[in-house]
TrEMBL record:
<dbReference type="GO" id="GO:0046872">
    <property type="term" value="F:metal ion binding"/>
</dbReference>
<keyword id="KW-0004">4Fe-4S</keyword>
<feature type="binding site">
    <location>
        <position position="236"/>
    </location>
    <ligand>
        <name>S-adenosyl-L-methionine</name>
    </ligand>
</feature>
<dbReference type="Pfam" id="PF04055">
    <property type="entry name" value="Radical_SAM"/>
</dbReference>
<dbReference type="InterPro" id="IPR006638">
    <property type="entry name" value="Elp3/MiaA/NifB-like_rSAM"/>
</dbReference>
<dbReference type="InterPro" id="IPR024021">
    <property type="entry name" value="FeFe-hyd_HydE_rSAM"/>
</dbReference>
<keyword id="KW-0411">Iron-sulfur</keyword>
<feature type="binding site">
    <location>
        <position position="163"/>
    </location>
    <ligand>
        <name>S-adenosyl-L-methionine</name>
    </ligand>
</feature>
<feature type="binding site">
    <location>
        <position position="68"/>
    </location>
    <ligand>
        <name>[4Fe-4S] cluster</name>
    </ligand>
</feature>
<feature type="binding site">
    <location>
        <position position="61"/>
    </location>
    <ligand>
        <name>[4Fe-4S] cluster</name>
    </ligand>
</feature>
<feature type="binding site">
    <location>
        <position position="138"/>
    </location>
    <ligand>
        <name>(3R)-3-methyl-D-ornithine</name>
    </ligand>
</feature>
<feature type="domain" description="Radical SAM core">
    <location>
        <begin position="47"/>
        <end position="273"/>
    </location>
</feature>
<keyword id="KW-0408">Iron</keyword>
<feature type="binding site">
    <location>
        <position position="185"/>
    </location>
    <ligand>
        <name>S-adenosyl-L-methionine</name>
    </ligand>
</feature>
<dbReference type="InterPro" id="IPR034422">
    <property type="entry name" value="HydE/PylB-like"/>
</dbReference>
<protein>
    <submittedName>
        <fullName>Biotin synthase</fullName>
        <ecNumber>2.8.1.6</ecNumber>
    </submittedName>
</protein>
<keyword id="KW-0808">Transferase</keyword>
């Protein structure tokens, strides 16, 4: 049997290699995988970190994903939508903090009023800074026309996690009805790419019923679908969701954390030029989780800029950090310097993969 170092020395990793690497339980092997991923990261995207300010602007959601704390049927939370002025004030703060981009995230809403209001917000925010901020949206499944309208208004990036690339697992983690359709989620990702968004997706790691083979297939899905950005992190329990009943059957949280780092590391190795987010979910399990994510190959952080008073109503899972304190760039600067990483201000940090994909000069795209 090949050693982990021998597997990692191969020019290409097979699905079987990925399954073997995701199954690592030995500490030395885990370190070898992470070392390799960090050396790939250093050579491709560099020891640089891009900050995007996250604004969770509404927790209204029409869906009922079994794992999510802001699902429609959770009546224990207060529903809110930030006013335009509140969003502009937070955006001004992001500009003052020298962020070059923001992420507008919410539950899934699809009324014509929502579409129109978001388009006008995007257009206004584009005029607030010079050079303009890059705007990422993360507001779920929408029609082609809606995506196009927001793109035309000035949004450049979109995050829509597939959650799992295994269709039958997808159906186990969502209600069985038309608003929770795997095929529609796939179609949305295709539409976003067609329109010209830098397109991001991702999965949760350690879900009930999920296997290591599923996770290997998720990585292959990202590669085959030519994704530009990935955000993935451990699945975490929210006690007021239907999936809370599976808490006892999950991998222990420490193992879910290490598995998440192996997923990030492998992804960096197979897709060297994409952007990878070190997620807040990592930090929930370990206070230095996001730093560990960066050392495993991630290169993007999304500090939460949602006003503190709203954060308790945007708890996707229990113990989500940051409901008490603000996150400031200066603090990030010193934390990251300690691990040899540097925040890139004055740089949009667009996905290199996206840029190459569009200039038809992509080293890891199969379908150019
Ligand atoms: N509503 C939009 C959507 O679903 O695409 C965007 C907001 S949604 C809250 C953003 C992401 O949160 C989801 O894609 C999901 O992966 C993640 N999430 C929700 N519940 C979670 C949980 N219990 N543990 C970890 N991540 C979770
Ligand atoms: Fe709504 Fe997104 Fe949560 Fe699903 S994951 S319930 S769509 S906010």
């Amino acid at each position: 049997m090949m050693t982990v170092d021998e597997i990692l020395d191969q020019p290409e990793l097979s699905r079987a290699d990925m399954i073997r690497l995701l199954s690592i339980s030995d500490d030395h092997e885990q370190k070898a995988l992470i070392r390799k991923a960090y050396s790939v990261k250093t050579k491709t995207v560099g020891q640089k970190v891009y900050l995007r300010g996250l604004i969770e602007f509404s927790n209204l959601c029409r869906k009922n994903c079994f794992y999510c704390g802001i699902r429609n049927d959770n009546h224990k939370i207060n529903r809110y939508s930030l006013s335009e002025d509140e969003i502009y004030r937070i955006t001004a703060y992001a500009i003052q903090q020298r962020f070059t981009g923001i992420v507008l995230q919410s539950g899934e809403q699809n009324s014509p009023a929502f579409t129109k209001q978001l388009a006008s917000l995007i257009a206004h925010i584009k005029k607030m800074a010079n050079p303009p901020l890059r705007i990422t949206l993360s507001v779920g499944e929408q029609s082609y026309e809606t995506y196009q309208e927001w793109f035309n208004a000035g949004a450049e990036r979109y995050l829509l996690r597939i959650e799992t690339a295994n269709e039958s697992l997808y159906h186990k983690i969502h209600p069985d009805n038309a608003v929770h359709s795997f095929q529609n989620r796939l179609q949305c990702l295709e539409n976003l790419q067609k329109i010209g968004f830098q397109t991001g997706t991702g999965v949760m790691i350690g879900l009930p019923f999920q296997t290591i083979n599923d996770l290997a297939d998720d990585l292959l899905f990202f590669k085959n679908r030519n994704m530009d950005m990935i955000g993935m992190g451990p699945y975490l329990v929210h006690s007021d969701t239907p999936f809370a009943r599976f808490s006892a059957s999950l991998l222990p949280s420490g193992e879910r954390f290490r598995l998440s780092l192996r997923m990030i590391a492998l992804l960096r190795i197979i897709m060297p030029d994409i952007n990878i987010v070190a997620t807040t979910a990592l930090q929930t399990i370990d206070p230095t989780g996001r730093e560990s994510g960066l050392l495993a190959g991630a290169n993007v952080l999304m500090p939460n800029l949602t006003p503190i008073t709203y954060r308790d109503n945007y708890l996707l899972y229990d113990n989500k950090p940051g409901s008490k304190e603000e996150e400031l760039s200066d603090e990030f600067d010193s934390k990251l310097q300690q691990i040899g990483e540097k925040i890139e201000y004055n740089n949009y940090g667009d996905s290199i993969h996206f840029t190459k994909r569009n200039s038809h000069d992509c080293i890891s795209c199969d379908n150019n």
